[in-house]
Design brief:
Shape: globular
CATH topology of the largest domain: Alpha-Beta Plaits
CATH class of the largest domain: Alpha Beta
Strand content: 25-35%
Order of helices and strands: EEHEEHHEEHEEHHE
Distance between the termini: 6 Å
Helix content: 25-40%
Number of domains: 2
């Protein structure tokens, strides 16, 4: 894990994947740690890195960086790095889903501790509601999310034109899921659900393993 607590992050990479059938968890974790030490730790602008897993045996590589240019520069050099190739060789190529997003929040920093990531993505029914989405997100934080000690951080990310992510960092998987599922009954959360096109929604919960 890489963690820079004194730096702000303006962009995030969330890349989910499935490992090849013959690859053990231990081999995957060991290879990701080697990739982190040999490649990521030498890159400028990395704020945070970890490997997470969900309850369906899928994995995700998570990066928080100082700005989107850091991710673009990494794309240019990563293909020639041996430790990166060793990591990629363990992954089923057709399972990879990569999302780069800008963090639509000023002065976002990584909390000292969290063990769970809620990662959802969606489109708006009306893309002109972008500012309303951010305003609603701020209200949800104040009136709901941060009233629970489990919630350590939250933001809206912009993946592409009218494609957004909602990310919550929590202390535990169980409590983070419970709080998320409470959106449907909370008066401050319902407006966000009503703005989103439910046919485009994707949501999962991930816990840190490396």
């Amino acid at each position: 894990m890489i963690k820079q607590l004194n730096k702000n992050a303006k962009a995030m990479e969330f890349t989910s994947f499935t490992k090849k059938d013959h690859v053990s968890d231990d081999e995957l974790i060991r290879t990701v740690m080697q990739f982190e030490n040999a490649f990521l730790s030498n890159q400028k602008g990395i704020v945070f890195h970890c490997l997470v897993r969900n309850l369906n045996n899928n994995y995700a590589n998570v990066l928080f960086v100082e700005d989107m240019e850091v991710l673009k520069e990494m794309e240019k050099t990563i293909q020639n790095n041996t430790s990166a190739q060793d990591f990629f060789d363990l992954i089923k190529t057709d399972s990879v889903q990569m999302n780069f997003q800008t963090i639509e929040k000023e002065n976002f920093s990584i909390p000292k501790y969290f063990s769970c990531i809620e990662y959802g993505s969606f489109s708006l029914k009306d893309k002109s509601n972008y500012q309303a989405l951010l305003n609603t997100s701020n209200t949800i934080e104040t009136e709901y999310l941060f009233k629970a000690s489990n919630t350590q951080a939250h933001f809206i990310g912009k993946i592409a034109e009218n494609r957004f992510s909602e990310v919550t960092l929590g202390n535990t998987l169980g409590k983070t899921k419970e709080i998320c599922f409470g959106y449907t009954e909370n008066e401050y959360c319902k407006p966000m659900l009503e703005m989103a096109d439910d046919t485009t929604m994707e949501l999962d919960f991930w816990y840190l393993i490396a």
